[in-house]
Write a structure and sequence with these properties.
With 154 residues, the chain is of the alpha+beta class. It contains 6 helices and 5 strands; from the N terminus they run ββααβααββαα. The structure holds FE2/S2 (inorganic) cluster.
Length: 154
């Protein structure tokens, strides 16, 4: 589990890695959209660019998956830590500012303080994030081919 701290709302939400940030926010009842997005958003397809968030983490490069093509297009002129919540898959704990286009209490200092207040997180290794049943056919728990011992010859 990872923790998402929503700065504006002063709310911590625990969720598993691998889920979409928009889904976590909406499931928690967090208002993700400004007026334009409330009146009409694309439902998470990356087409309306109304689900802006600003994010920060102890390692911003690993908290979320990299920007997608729609984000590259819609966020060209936005700060590098802005994301479309519907496009961002959570990898590790982070701090999120909803509706950053409106600013937020305390500004960047509050964002940095929230990141510093987070418990230290270990970036999950590839092995940690793979389900146990993600073995290739005919492989045992060590990834070795079943039935073939080391050094065994025909
Ligand atoms: S909900 Fe439309 S771009 Fe994210």
């Amino acid at each position: 589990m990872v923790t998402i701290h929503f700065l504006r709302e002063q709310l911590d939400i625990d969720c598993p890695a691998g889920v979409i940030l928009r889904d976590v926010a909406l499931d928690a009842g967090i208002e993700l959209y400004g007026l334009k997005g409330k009146l009409g958003n694309c439902g998470g397809c990356g087409q309306c660019s109304t689900c802006f968030v600003a994010v920060a983490g102890q390692d911003e490069d690993t908290c979320l998956t990299p920007r997608t093509a729609p984000e590259q297009r819609f966020l060209k002129k936005r700060p590098p830590n802005w994301r479309l919540a519907c496009q961002a898959v959570i990898r590790n704990s982070l701090v999120v500012v909803t509706r950053p286009q409106m600013g937020w209490p305390g500004g960047d200092e509050a964002l940095a303080a929230a990141v510093n207040a987070m418990p230290m997180n270990a970036v999950p290794s590839a092995k940690d994030s793979e389900p146990d049943d993600h073995k290739g056919p005919g492989q045992d728990d060590d990834g070795a081919e079943a039935g073939i011992e080391s050094g065994e010859q025909d």
